[in-house]
Amino acid sequence: MMNGQAFLQVENVSFGYGKQYVLKDVSLSMYSGEYTVLIGPNGSGKSTLIKLILGLLQQQDGQIQIQRSRVGYVAQQANRGLADFPATVREVVASGSYGQIGLLRWMGSKHWQGVERALDQVGLTEFASRKLSQLSGGQQQRVYIARALMSNPQLLILDEPTVGIDVQAKEQFYQLLKQLHQQGLSILLVSHDLDEVISDVDRVLCLNQSIYFYGSTQEFLREQKELLPNLFGVSTIRSIL
Amino acid sequence: MIFTFSFMQQAFIAGVIVGFLSPLVGLFLVVRRLSLIAEALSHVNLSGIAAGLLVQKNFPAFAFLQPLYFGMFFSLVGSLFVERIRRLYRTYQELAIPIMLSFGMAVGVIFISASGGFNADVAGYLFGNILNITVQEVKMISIVGLIVLLVIVLLYKELFALSFDEEYARLMGIRHHLINGIFILLVALVISISIRVVGSLLVSALMTIPVASSLQIAKSFRQALLYAIIFAELAVMIGLIGSYYLNWASGGTIVLVSVCIFFMTVAVRRWIFRG
Ligand SMILES: Nc1ncnc2c1ncn2[C@@H]1O[C@H](COP(=O)(O)OP(=O)(O)OP(=O)(O)O)[C@@H](O)[C@H]1O
Ligand SMILES: [Mg+2]
């Protein structure tokens, strides 16, 4: 799997909002088709790292190489504040292609077909004409995935997408991610639900200001007895939850 | 029929244009929780109009420079400041509003007192006096209106994306500074041409109340736009006819009708949810 050029390369990146470092000397690389889960305690810099990768923040040190037009993003708590916006699911998903269409151009039939395909992929076809606010939290998160799929991404980045979603919806949600991964999409998932996703992912990345562990799922399962107490102060995955 | 009077025709042309554009920009302001920006800019606009009246009084040679143009210039400059201040505070973006609002009010009051205090002219700009609108003003309103409409149609995609989720829009490579800057200029222009119709004190009402009504029943963003425009046009037309026959201030009557429509939509919505 590691053959070929990495399409995301983070090299020795450091970043701080003020004088203090939030991230120190972080390096990682992702190859096509890879599913990586990023874990770490609250405040460990997970969202910050994601924002650096997306170019929403600028690192003070180090380099990030990525083709940003091929990245889809689902933000942490994406559904907050936007939920009562007067738009249908279809309108929101369509907006995911507005960047690529470019200034002074309109949605063509090709783009609308893309919208229907994305809705189908996340299983929301029957909700397409509903207002966003009439959907459950889990369904809303699917809308944001569909929007991210509109840019035809190589890599999908999700920052704690299941916060505030019930257990059953969570399972369906991770099932969806697994399907997308099997269709060839690379995924970088920030999550505390290690237990639910550990059997789906290829690699695990533990972050706490700097990288604490970065390796295959098998390696992680072998080493977790030593890793987790230091990272979270607990001894098994289950007790993080 | 009242339309046979040419001044009534002029009033209707101006009213229809303003009734179309106010809710159009108003919807984008409301969903971004920036509707009070209209309020602030209308006060800045008023200070410009007061400056214009002062110039007209003291320098009769410049009488051809209508106070309306002064108002437009002031609110255009003001809108750029609003955008600047807005960027200064990421989480307290609405702080720009009271700053501009008080500034505009203060300058306006100073100019008005310097030009001899409140008189019928000032009242016309404050509360709207569409029945006295001149042919030249209607021409200006039409041209500005056409420009605003064209720009909004061309930037609809970007405006939607930025209103729904500014961070994601940035991520997609939408030039947010540019689009936001253009949009706030459009708001200033719409305010400037609405002053004659509803007056500076009520400009923001025509931008927000029809939108508030529309949000009660709209099921999509397109519907929200459509209903808001329909409600605003209804308010303008009923208001104009009403103000003519009742001899009420046009601005006040239009806004009153608008508020009535709002309560009707609230009632309709309740009725739908119950039934
Ligand atoms: N905009 C900001 N300005 C200043 N400090 C910030 C900002 N955002 C985050 N921080 C700080 O940076 C550190 C890392 O924050 P970050 O949001 O990346 O953590 P996280 O790992 O995503 O946490 P969580 O699990 O709670 O989402 C925290 O200590 C936080 O207080
Ligand atoms: Mg976070």
Automatic annotation (TrEMBL), chain A:
<comment type="similarity">
    <text>Belongs to the ABC transporter superfamily.</text>
</comment>
<feature type="domain" description="ABC transporter">
    <location>
        <begin position="8"/>
        <end position="234"/>
    </location>
</feature>
<protein>
    <submittedName>
        <fullName>Zinc transport system ATP-binding protein</fullName>
    </submittedName>
</protein>
<keyword id="KW-0067">ATP-binding</keyword>
<dbReference type="InterPro" id="IPR003439">
    <property type="entry name" value="ABC_transporter-like_ATP-bd"/>
</dbReference>
<keyword id="KW-0813">Transport</keyword>
<dbReference type="GO" id="GO:0016887">
    <property type="term" value="F:ATP hydrolysis activity"/>
</dbReference>
<dbReference type="InterPro" id="IPR050153">
    <property type="entry name" value="Metal_Ion_Import_ABC"/>
</dbReference>
<dbReference type="InterPro" id="IPR027417">
    <property type="entry name" value="P-loop_NTPase"/>
</dbReference>
<dbReference type="GO" id="GO:0005524">
    <property type="term" value="F:ATP binding"/>
</dbReference>
<keyword id="KW-0547">Nucleotide-binding</keyword>
<dbReference type="InterPro" id="IPR003593">
    <property type="entry name" value="AAA+_ATPase"/>
</dbReference>
<dbReference type="Pfam" id="PF00005">
    <property type="entry name" value="ABC_tran"/>
</dbReference>
TrEMBL record, chain B:
<dbReference type="Pfam" id="PF00950">
    <property type="entry name" value="ABC-3"/>
</dbReference>
<comment type="similarity">
    <text>Belongs to the ABC-3 integral membrane protein family.</text>
</comment>
<feature type="transmembrane region" description="Helical">
    <location>
        <begin position="225"/>
        <end position="246"/>
    </location>
</feature>
<dbReference type="InterPro" id="IPR037294">
    <property type="entry name" value="ABC_BtuC-like"/>
</dbReference>
<feature type="transmembrane region" description="Helical">
    <location>
        <begin position="252"/>
        <end position="272"/>
    </location>
</feature>
<feature type="transmembrane region" description="Helical">
    <location>
        <begin position="61"/>
        <end position="83"/>
    </location>
</feature>
<protein>
    <submittedName>
        <fullName>Zinc transport system permease protein</fullName>
    </submittedName>
</protein>
<dbReference type="InterPro" id="IPR001626">
    <property type="entry name" value="ABC_TroCD"/>
</dbReference>
<dbReference type="GO" id="GO:0010043">
    <property type="term" value="P:response to zinc ion"/>
</dbReference>
<keyword id="KW-0813">Transport</keyword>
<feature type="transmembrane region" description="Helical">
    <location>
        <begin position="138"/>
        <end position="156"/>
    </location>
</feature>
<keyword id="KW-1133">Transmembrane helix</keyword>
<dbReference type="GO" id="GO:0055085">
    <property type="term" value="P:transmembrane transport"/>
</dbReference>
<feature type="transmembrane region" description="Helical">
    <location>
        <begin position="177"/>
        <end position="195"/>
    </location>
</feature>
<dbReference type="GO" id="GO:0043190">
    <property type="term" value="C:ATP-binding cassette (ABC) transporter complex"/>
</dbReference>
<feature type="transmembrane region" description="Helical">
    <location>
        <begin position="95"/>
        <end position="118"/>
    </location>
</feature>
<feature type="transmembrane region" description="Helical">
    <location>
        <begin position="12"/>
        <end position="31"/>
    </location>
</feature>
<keyword id="KW-0472">Membrane</keyword>
<keyword id="KW-0812">Transmembrane</keyword>
